[in-house]
Predict the structure.
Amino acid sequence: MVLGFRILEVFNGGSYAELAALSSTLVLITGTVLFFVIVISKRFGVSKTQ
């Protein structure tokens, strides 16, 4: 699924509530993935201080 096309489609023909819900969901998913990547990189990172 291409999210950019879906967001553009909702922006042009949908409601602002649907657009806000779609963007909020995208922000939550991206933030969760980013959080886990940061945690994993700190745990297994190369530049660990001893």
Helices lie at 3-13, 16-44. The first helix runs from residue 3 to 13. The two ends are 44 Å apart (CA to CA). The mean pLDDT is 85.
